Amino acid sequence: MPLRYPRPLQPGDRVGITSPSSGVPEELRERLAVAVRDVRARGYEVVTGRCMDGSGHISASAADRAAELTAMLTDPGIRAVVPPWGGESAIDLLPLLDWDRLRTAEPTWLVGYSDLSTVMTPLTLLTGTATVHGNNLMDTPYRAPEGLASWLDIVAAPPGHRFTQIPPERHRATGRDDYAEHPDVHTFTLDTPGRWTRLDGGGDVDVEGRLVGGCIEMLVNLAGTPYLDASAFARTHAPEGLLVYVEASGDDAFAICRNLHGMRLAGFFDAANAVLVGRTSAPDMASLTQRQAVLDALGPLNVPIVADVECGHVPPFLPLVNGARARVVHTSTRSELTQTLD
Asked: How confident is residue 1, by pLDDT bands cut at 50, 70 and 90?
């Protein structure tokens, strides 16, 4: 069964902005305005929803957030939905979303990461609709380093488009830009060298499969539920197997180890041909590092495990399309990820 790819955006198309999890506080509204201007500079119209309140940890009630997200994703006049960022509790939307409408409507791009994994990954698994795990709207003004793409490039790509991303081998080790003080920042601070690392042993990696994954702290809460049935997705859409990617936001190594064990026991990695692990600044523990945590939980899979990929909370961002065919290559001299939108 083919994946459902939204049609590519063209100038004049509309992009919806809503906050399925956390809204935007007043002191960061100027950064939001800068991000909106960048989207408009591509020739798109921007439609901002009502669920944007940033005074608390959620932008509106669960019912209102679910209704607005469903409406935007099923509105044929809106071609992409890009939340400002993640948050903490998008999970409360899942039983309230109109999955039948989402499954039958013309597909619309949904873009984001972090807590948005809670919605995007189930959307791909349950409806076969491709989604973009990449920079959020508030990160959009940053210029992608050479070798990496922006979500704006991906949503405008034609069907069957193939693109290769190559890591810049530099990242930001500490801190983040202050959007309140510098709302118009457009340049990443990449102050530390670093390459992809194979955790499960030596040797070259050259593996293919369909991409599926997201943030560990969010997806673990769906493990064992119908919302995270990667095995069923693989049987329907990826008999060749999956490339599963995961990334840690901030939990310490003990928590990440437990979470990954639980996800493995629930079958999330059963169809994995390889696992990609995002670079993280989450804390190690005295007797267990983040890398050791991954290897402890996922080593029994006996598949290649490649860590320090730019697909998490450490800038810069390497966008991944949930559902895309992909090939990962990692050797002592070369690292790259090729995705095909078919």
From this structure: confident
